[in-house]
Amino acid sequence: MSILSGKHILLGVTGGIAAYKTAFLVRLFKKAGAEVKVIMTKEAEEFVTPLTLSTLSENPVLSSLTDEEKNWNNHVELGLWADFMLIAPVTANTLSKMASGNADNLLLTTYLSAKCPVYFAPAMDLDMYKHKSTKASINTLVNYGNKFIKPGSGELASGLVGEGRMAEPEEIVQFLEKDVLSQLPLYGQSVMITAGPTYEAIDPVRFIGNHSSGKMGFALAETALKLGAEVILISGPTNLKLVNSNLKLIAVQSAQEMFEAAKSYFENVDIAIASAAVSDYRPKQQFDDKIKKKTELLTLELEPTPDILKYLGSQKNNQILIGFALETSNEIENAKSKLERKNLDFIVLNSLKDKGAGFKTDTNRIRIITKDDILRFDIKSKTEVAADIFDQILKMNSK
Ligand code: C5P
Predict the structure, then answer these.
(1) Is residue 124 within 6 Å of ligand 1 at its C-beta?
(2) Any idea which architecture 8-182 has in CATH?
(3) Domain map of the chain by residue range?
(4) Using an 8 Å Cβ cutoff, are 334 and 325 in contact?
(5) pLDDT for 144-189, tens place per residue?
(6) Of 242, 245, 342, 398, which is least surrounded by CB within 10 A?
(7) Which of 49, 20, 50 is nearest to 37 (CA)?
């Protein structure tokens, strides 16, 4: 999933030959899950048809201040709709008008009223690009807080070779993604999360496991990604899926495998959350062949699995370390003692007594227990619970 997923992108297209590339640009934004609306100048319509861009964006393309019935195309509303405005390609002419506050078409009036971040990707012939007035326009726009997507060098439509080609659509998308990510509170930080159950093999077909679905851990991973983090999700067997270029998903089966994975990543992460329901015991002996049914009693000897969270607590340097607790009695006391014993920054307590909390449900009711505080929350979706947990992490992170 791209960070642009669900975002509203307003694309302004002006009249340069690079306008033909906006068809690819719109496709890439749509593929990233963004919603796109396009505004064109009259001159841009000579280079790429509004029909092409309206078909690809699945929205009408606007180019004048009024429509055919003389209804006003509300530029203020368009500006407010947008999470980002991108003007690509932007010609020397539009650059200069933007820099001077000229507002003689829909694109410029929308630009002037937009409150969202504005990106611009110039495209023009090399001498126009080199001209002092063009450089001055770019500097002015950057000083106004707009974001400049530098043109590339190469063959130009005039046949000349030099700087002035609009950045490639892929580069523009990457520029936006990186810029959006870099403003998020967990940008540059890595988060390791353990999730799901573990399966402890008895023989080739049987195991000791539990009812954990992995939903809480996956919701935490999704939230961390949305906050801009790089995420390592170490998950026991689940049916859940999550794809994101900033996610490393490590599928494990047993507590031992989860332990090995957690051990190898912990040192280099900033935040670790143990939300997995790790089996506390495993069969001492694993049978190579399926155990045959017999009439007499079968005794399995169990040995403890490694306590992953306790190990992480003992190795902790500057990481924020968070554990989960599910208690059936003396909840607060037990959770507090776990907080100390495992050297945690806070522990998330979920109760089996609450309806709609715990395994397999989509909701959870938690309490966050820190060294000197207990925060109580209502029953919420696991996504909202994950947001509450990260709110607390962000508070600690900013200290
Ligand atoms: O001590 P208890 O097992 O109840 O602690 C629960 C917390 O410890 C959870 O955060 C769970 O993910 C973690 N845990 C672990 N390794 C184990 C058992 C529990 O990381 N073997």
Answers:
(1) no
(2) 3-Layer(aba) Sandwich (3.40)
(3) 8-182, 190-288+295-397
(4) yes
(5) 999 999 999 998 888 889 999 999 999 999 999 999 999 999 999 9
(6) 398
(7) 50
Catalytic residue at 102? no
Percent of the chain at pLDDT above 90? 86
pLDDT of residue 399: 60
pTM as predicted: 0.84
Q: Which of 74, 102, 210, 343 is catalytic?
A: 210
CB under 8 Å to 357, separation ≥6 — which residues? Answer: 350, 351, 363, 364, 365, 366, 379
The answer, yes or no, to whether any atom of ligand 1 lies below 6 A from the CB of 26, is no
Per-residue pLDDT at 328: 83
Segment 334-360, tens digit of pLDDT: 999 999 999 999 999 987 777 766 666
* Sole residue written with tokens 């851990």: 217
Whether the ω angle into residue 304 lies within 30 degrees of 0, i.e. cis, is: no
* β pairing state of 271-274 and 281-283: unpaired
Q: Write the DSSP string, 309-325.
A: HHHHHHH-SS-EEEEEE
Q: At what angle do helices 382-397 and 215-226 cross, to 10 degrees?
A: 50
Average pLDDT (45-54) is 97
Q: Which among 216, 257, 263, 309 is the best mutation to test ligand 1's pocket, defined by most ligand atoms within 8 Å of the CB?
A: 309
Confidence of residue 66 (pLDDT cuts 50, 70, 90): confident
